[in-house]
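Q: I have 170 residues here and want to know how they pack in 3D. Can you give me a structure?
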Amino acid sequence: MAMYSRLFILIALLFTVSFAYAGQKIAFVNQAKLLQKAPQAESARSKLQKEFAKRDKSLVSLQKKIQSSATKLQKDAAILSASELNKLKRKITLLRRDLERDKAAFKEDLSIRQNEELVKLQKSVLKSIQTIAKKEHYDLIISDGVIYASKQIDITDKILTQLKKQYSGK
């Protein structure tokens, strides 16, 4: 008899807990999708591309200059004097050193700017999520670390629409 009463109490507790959570409004947001598809993300990518285009062209130009000098060295090595040959080799070495230094600086500067733009985008996404959450009275919105979320609670597209409205409003 004691086993039946324990079983009854356990079943009653399970029903009580499920009823307590029945009124909660829960949603899921795929932040990776938002960070990729938001118009603010595309704008940031375009902005960075424009900002770094000149430096990128400069690097490409320097690479071509090195390639041209290396080709000249291969082609004319037999007819150049020893001093001219050494001068050309030193020029190529210095150009390669410059290229490596410029590439490293470019990569570091680009990374810093990408992180700055990402932080701005993340703040915008978070603000949109909070706006929708308050407007539609959500109790909980879950994001990263979710293994499964049904389409019924996925509000990612709502947030994306909100981000588009914010972007077009600027």
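Q: Anything worth noting?
A: The helical segments are 2-22, 31-37, 39-76, 82-135, 156-168. The chain has five helices and two strands.
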